[in-house]
Design goal:
Helix 3 runs parallel beside helix 9 and helix 5 (135-158) runs antiparallel to helix 6. The chain is globular, with a radius of gyration of 23 Å. Strand 1 (114-115) and strand 2 (118-119) form a beta hairpin. The chain has a two-stranded antiparallel ribbon with strand order 1-2. 66% of the residues lie in helices and 2% in strands. By secondary structure, the protein is mainly alpha-helical.
């Protein structure tokens, strides 16, 4: 008996109490949803995932898969930043508006001087801001996102106002900047180099043409960033401190972590990721509008929560958020495939988000009792 409990304070290891990683539960939900939509489509004489056309030599419905990946990639990048904010016990309601403001500013520095042989009719600045190297609008966009995230972090960390209020103020202000920038008018006609940021073939270039995937750059960037931040959150001090602050901020302070500085860093990172999303979004659409990014912040939060990130802080993972993003994309595409009206889709999406939060609260109570 002494050997069985040595080093465990008298406690014995019970294999029956082992718990699997919560990401497996999210993955199981993803598979279940895929099966449900496949069955519903089969009942209507089609298929959700598979190719049903005899004149196309492919197993999967490639067009649908492409759309599913693209529609989730932009918001998924925002969700990577939002996940980190929620893990430290915060919230970010401003990311969608930051996308809108950044989009307008970025496109202003990405414009080409001539359109079909005529001066650019949507020009914001003079000739000095036309046909600039692509690095200039990218730098301007990243600076915009960094500034917004920095302001959020400083307000949360040093004024001690609730993150909800701080980021709500940024949400309203950034949306106002987006509308003010060009008096509400779209900003269009970027240079060819800027348009290729999202519409090029980054994957093919990385694999020397073996995996040519034209126009899927946002998805490639999303995957690369997800891998990067998974490693950062799992293996670096940045990630360990984030989880420590979200689990118990007072204990984190007592252990020597500069909590305020780390909060600023996390919110700044979220702002930068929102800027990356804005750059890819405007490059993909070849235009910027003041209304870009509306509701993106709520969709990003929903992806994180569906993926198992706890709104109480201290729990969750980048992998879970990626799976949550996949579930979100499957649900949207699945509703479209069975021709469910858009307003019903919004109702069901809302119910799913509430259900995910209820499940998270249940998990917390169960963990507390256990």
């Amino acid at each position: 008996m002494a050997e069985a409990t040595h080093g465990l304070g008298g406690l014995k290891y019970d294999p029956a109490k082992r718990t699997r990683a919560p990401e497996w539960n999210v993955f199981g939900a993803l598979v279940l949803i895929l099966v449900i939509f496949e069955v519903l489509n089969r009942m209507q004489g089609g298929s959700f995932l598979f190719n049903m056309r005899d004149n196309v030599d492919a197993i999967f419905n490639q067009q649908r898969l492409d759309i599913m990946i693209l529609q989730v990639a932009i918001i998924g990048i925002i969700a990577l930043g939002v996940t980190q904010v929620i893990i430290i016990g915060g919230i970010d309601l401003s990311s969608g508006s930051v996308v809108g403001a950044t989009a307008m500013i970025v496109m202003s520095f990405a414009q080409t001087a001539m359109v079909n042989g005529n001066p650019n009719p949507k020009a914001i600045f003079g000739d000095w801001a036309m046909d600039l190297p692509v690095i200039v609008p990218i730098a301007a966009g990243l600076a915009c996102g960094l500034l917004a995230g920095l302001v959020n972090g400083l307000l949360v960390a040093y004024t001690k106002i609730p993150p909800f209020i701080a980021t709500l103020g940024m949400m309203v202000s950034a949306r106002g900047v987006a509308r003010w920038w060009s008096n509400g008018q779209p900003v269009s006609f970027p240079t060819e180099g800027y348009g290729s940021l999202a519409n090029g073939d980054l994957l093919g270039g990385m694999t020397f043409g073996l995996l040519s995937w034209q126009g899927q750059n946002p998805a490639v960037v999303f995957v690369l960033l997800a891998v990067l931040f998974h490693l950062v959150m799992k293996y670096t001090l940045y990630g360990k401190r984030s989880y420590a602050i979200g689990s118990n901020e007072a204990a984190a302070r007592m252990s020597g972590i500069n909590v305020d500085r780390h909060k600023v860093l996390v919110y700044t990172m979220a702002g930068l990721l929102a800027a990356v999303a804005a750059i890819l979004l405007t490059s993909k659409n070849l235009t910027a509008q003041a209304g870009m990014g509306v509701m993106y912040e709520l969709d990003a939060i929903a992806m994180a929560v569906i993926g198992g990130v706890s709104l109480a802080g201290g729990r969750g993972s980048i992998i879970g958020t990626v799976l949550g993003a996949a579930i979100f994309s499957v649900i949207i595409s699945g509703f479209t495939s069975i021709r469910l009206d858009a307003y019903y889709q919004e109702m069901v999406k809302g119910a799913i988000i509430v259900g995910a939060v209820v499940l998270d609260q249940w998990r917390q109570r169960t963990r507390t009792r256990g």
